[in-house]
Known about the structure:
Elements: H1 2-23, H2 38-44, H3 48-54, E1 73-74, E2 88-94, E3 98-100, E4 103-104, E5 110-116, E6 119-124, E7 139-143, E8 148-151, E9 156-161, E10 167-173, E11 181-182, H4 183-187, H5 192-198, H6 205-214, E12 220-222, H7 224-229, E13 236-242, E14 273-278, E15 289-293, E16 324-326, E17 331-333, E18 351-356, E19 365-369
Amino acid sequence: xxxxxxxxxxxxxxxxxxxxxxxxxxxxxxxxxxxxxxxxxxxxxxxxxxxxxxxxxxxxxxxxxxxxxxxxxxxxxxxxxxxxxxxxxxxxxxxxxxxxxxxxxxxxxxxxxxxxxxxxxxxxxxxxxxxxxxxxxxxxxxxxxxxxxxxxxxxxxxxxxxxxxxxxxxxxxxxxxxxxxxxxxxxxxxxxxxxxxxxxxxxxxxxxxxxxxxxxxxxxxxxxxxxxxxxxxxxxxxxxxxxxxxxxxxxxxxxxxxxxxxxxxxxxxxxxxxxxxxxxxxxxxxxxxxxxxxxxxxxxxxxxxxxxxxxxxxxxxxxxxxxxxxxxxxxxxxxxxxxxxxxxxxxxxxxxxxxxxxxxxxxxxxxxxx
Length: 370
């Protein structure tokens, strides 16, 4: 028993000495900050005086918004002088007839001040903020130069420039680390099932893909009504239509039989040319289209209907109809994801020019459209 007590006492003393030895302060090895970014060094500085030492040049306290191709926002990442200030700032403009993408700032409140121009602003605050009709409140403001609005952190918001001149603004943020979330793009990053259930199965499958593909990638989305008002919409004119006269052709082809019919079915019998000019206020793309209408003697099927009579029309679609010539593969190819069906009436086509193609009694008319 005495031996056991003595052993216990000795172990207690040893443990106490070990714990005491561990409690003795050890010198901390200093780590060099030279391998850290300037922003990181500023964040680790013990005092403001040390931070000033890390910014020895007067130019360190100036940020230039001009000539930058990136988002024009000064943050602690691209302007280290903002470290520990708790703010970021932007100076930019919203082009004429443009809308900023619907977005939010997850970590900062934004103060948006208009310097020149005109801005229509919409902001949806957090859930539970209701209007007089007990519906989600939407705060709409009509900003003029010298006015400021506020977007609390996490609120959905956008700005629209409804005028023909750019709107210049300054925006301040209550965090030196700028962040933005793009509502449409991030929402449709979820799986199709999540999106379908979120919208009560009102959109599914191809509809989801169509919306996902249609989300603009530009920071500023063009407002078509405004573009038309300001004469800035894409506008194309067709001039100098040249339709060469074609000599009479034999009623039936006479070439050697081949896949798809006689080889002379593929002969080029005329080259129709036209000049296309963009007379609008911005760059754009146009797809000229050329249509041929058959003469009466060709007896193409038409739908003859009495008043209030109804008939079902069937359009058989062949593989050839949905194929295009792949120049690289030298084969007729089908890419189903790019095929859409468009049904309309001739009177709905934007007709630019019309000409007779054959100088014969049976007139084949040509219609050039865009």
